Amino acid sequence: MDQTPAERMIRSLGSALPLILLEIPIAGASHEYGHFRAYNLAGMDNPRFLSSLDDQTEYFTDPGIAFRQIALQSFVPGEFLYASQSTEEFQKFKNDKKRQRYEAYYNAFITGDGLNQEQYNAEMVGLKTLRGKAHPLDAITFFVNSAGTVMYSMDGKSDDISLYIKDLGRAGVKTDKNQIRSTSQIPKLLSNSTVSFVVAWFDYWITGNDAVEPLALELGDFRINWPDFYSYLTLHGPTIKGVERISWRNYALHISYERSLSDGSQEAGLMLEGNVFRWLSASVEGIKNFDTGGTWAEAEIALRPLALFGEHEALRWLEVGAQGYYGNGDTFRREIVGSSLHFEEEGTSGVRWFAGVNIPF
Description:
This protein has 361 residues and is of the alpha+beta class. 39% of the residues lie in helices and 28% in strands.
């Protein structure tokens, strides 16, 4: 039975509300695990959640605890948990003469990486949008994470942004709240994903079409997408990053450009991706920072094993694969996804394995 626009609006908002209530604590837990990643790169590997009411009370790093406590904050303001380390790990860090040479950098990296994790989550949803595979309800994940920096609560002293500004200043890089929460965020309003999700919701209410069509100029088999924009808190200050996608049939070229608002450092990248077969896709990416000379490279293969048995879209719900990476020197990208920082070791490399499930609804 066909629904009226009003009925579709009520249905979609009814679906969105519980997802928002779920997504906010998920993003919050992800934020704290971003801090844990940064602690680990700083050589501290005994993570704990501490209580805002009593910093002597330690909680184990159970994602369920993080989700529960952050969810309760929306209804019962009071105690909240934050990522930290055991006393022994902090002492070990202080006694490490090599790491103490870069103490300000490490602290800036740790305080910024929670919000960076949220921005990375948003960028992954944005990539899905540019590929034409997003659903209107993906907008909730995208906007909750993308707005994390703007919505983050500041007390001016001990919050992540204030500490990031202070620690980065001690390292010789100047930034301020306006750069972080205003200037670097404005381009997001013009992002392809931002506009496409808003248009998709109105289109669904009016016509019933639930597809998210990324903004693009079509020239025959070529599609030139309007770019997406993101922002990260790096050791060079807050950045603005633009990502452009140009596709031709089953292949696409991604062009990225990222610039620091503090010291003007610039970084650019190219990624080529495509479906080799219906059951196999691959991508390669190269990144260069023009100011530091640092480089970053990634190669990825993804296998959809069930698609070997037929062409139906439902057989593509399972995906497994591997990603290899190599970095040399200082790049923004290495800070966000790398396994070490450039001042610890010049080169870094590794392989990541992954599995994903995509359930159409």
